[in-house]
Amino acid sequence: MRRIAVLASGRGSNLQALIDAIAGGDLAAEVVGVFSDRSRAGAVERARAAGIPAVSLRPRDFDTRAAFDEALFSRVDDVQPDLIVCAGYMRLLSADVVEAREGRMINIHPSLLPAFKGLHTHQLALDAGATEHGASVHFVTAELDGGPVIAQARVPVLPDDDVERLSARVLAREHPLLLATVGALVEGRVRLVDGQVCDHGRPLAAPLQLGDDDRLLG
């Protein structure tokens, strides 16, 4: 069974989706640790409620970002994860940490990358007059939201949308997108080879897409 470590800074809804899928027998994996930069994050509470070890460190207790990352990831390494999932983890990661775990760390981001990197993606989509929005799962690199994209889920932007309505529509597709992508990685279907996402050993010309049945389509 594949071992998953989760990094999260917020309420932990994507973490809960993973926990529920594993408990329901839909994902052949185990969450072996949850790690956060916020001791009161909802993700930490969800982890402990599920009996999963949770570690939180305060960035202000460290002199540099690199020192914080080294301390946090030494604890991540202690649980020997096969896959590291950044699910609402809001800190930039130092290049050394990322490069040492190339191909084993993914992030879910609420936009159709490469559009709208960083924060406030739903407002940016509305301001840009986008007709389509969504979420992406990508391999983590040192570039902010810039790693190779594995899979995406798309939703329409409706004429009467505001940030709240649009974000709720995206979140409803984020959870199945993350589960499908983690499943593909756990099964060995998807891998990072020489910096390129491969599906069944074939390089992808474009990200996989989440279908209406919550399966990834090439």
TrEMBL record:
Catalytic activity from the UniProt record: N(1)-(5-phospho-beta-D-ribosyl)glycinamide + (6R)-10-formyltetrahydrofolate = N(2)-formyl-N(1)-(5-phospho-beta-D-ribosyl)glycinamide + (6S)-5,6,7,8-tetrahydrofolate + H(+)
UniProt-listed Enzyme Commission number(s): 2.1.2.2
Protein name: Phosphoribosylglycinamide formyltransferase
Organism whose genome encodes this protein: Marilutibacter chinensis
Site (described: Raises pKa of active site His): 145
PANTHER family (alphabetical): PHOSPHORIBOSYLGLYCINAMIDE FORMYLTRANSFERASE
InterPro entries with a match to the protein in the record: Formyl_transf_N, Formyl_transf_N_sf, GART, GART_AS
MF term (GO), any: phosphoribosylglycinamide formyltransferase activity
Protein's UniProt keywords contain Transferase: yes
Family: Belongs to the GART family.
Pathway note: Purine metabolism; IMP biosynthesis via de novo pathway; N(2)-formyl-N(1)-(5-phospho-D-ribosyl)glycinamide from N(1)-(5-phospho-D-ribosyl)glycinamide (10-formyl THF route): step 1/1
Gene3D superfamilies: Formyl transferase, N-terminal domain
Binding site for (6R)-10-formyltetrahydrofolate: 65, 90-93, 107
